[in-house]
Design brief:
Rossmann fold, 8 helices, 7-stranded parallel sheet, alpha/beta
Length: 253
């Protein structure tokens, strides 16, 4: 396990956060938010070109951001990225995929790919980060309100429900080492992933939100930053739904 250096005086280094799925959407918003909070942020994504462009833009704003092109399902690549830094204070697992498919038309390959990226792609970075963290480390997973169920995306529902279960299991095993593990479950959010749907479908989804509009990525990043903060070290194993209250159910009157 990599040891983190002792800090004192002039040798003090900034806290280090890693963020997967960092080239766009919620992951990118989280990179910027954590960097503005004083973290050195290693941005990880398999889209090397887009990731490098975004990291360069943020660095140009004076933020401490570096790019690490990585496929989160490739353990060797994840390990190499984590070992770029002498310490890990926070790991945010935001990488994920989504696609739409009716239950009776789902294939095993599509189902397995969803689980591979969304679940295994959360497990590997979280596990490797935990191996390198000292007491006080924080792991934040990104699940989804979709874990509660829905139509035309059973594979996505299953994957995000698994992320919540994985989060709780990791929290239980790591609490003795004082490593907190929590999850943020976004509701419908305006990201390149959701914008890939037909415009009429996006509008229909948006109209179902209590506020009548989708969340912005920075709103989700605010919640992730809360769990990434050392101030929340005594909170672990929790899932925070950031969905404008839609997960409460019921009818507005």
């Amino acid at each position: 396990m990599t040891q983190q250096p002792q800090e004192s005086g002039a040798t003090r280094t900034p806290p280090v956060a890693f963020v997967t799925g960092a080239a766009q959407g919620i992951g990118l918003a989280t990179v910027e938010r954590l960097a503005r909070d004083g973290f050195r942020v290693v941005a990880m994504d398999r889209n090397a070109e887009q990731l490098t462009q975004q990291a360069t833009l943020l660095a140009g704003l004076g933020l401490d951001v570096v790019a690490a092109p990585v496929d989160v399902c490739d353990r060797a690549a994840v390990v190499a990225a984590l070992d770029m830094q002498p310490r890990i204070d926070a790991m945010v697992c935001a990488a994920g995929i989504y696609n739409d498919a009716p239950l009776l038309e789902l294939t095993e390959d599509v189902f397995r790919r969803m689980l591979d990226v969304n679940v295994v792609g959360t497990f590997i970075p979280a596990q490797e980060a935990a191996r390198r963290m000292q007491a006080g480390g924080r792991i934040v997973t990104v699940s989804s309100r979709g874990a509660l169920g829905g139509t035309r995306f059973a594979h996505y529902v299953a994957s995000k429900a698994a992320v919540i279960g994985l989060t709780r299991a990791m929290a239980m095993e790591l609490r003795g080492r004082q490593i907190a593990v929590n999850s943020v479950a976004p509701g419908f959010t305006d990201t390149p992933m959701t914008r890939s749907a037909p415009a009429e479908m996006f509008s229909a989804w948006e109209s179902l939100e209590p506020s009548g509009k989708a969340a912005t990525p920075d709103l989700i990043a605010n919640a992730i930053a809360f769990f990434a903060s050392p101030a929340t070290q005594f909170v672990t194993g929790q899932t925070l739904f950031v969905d404008g209250g839609k997960s409460l159910g019921g009818l507005g009157i």
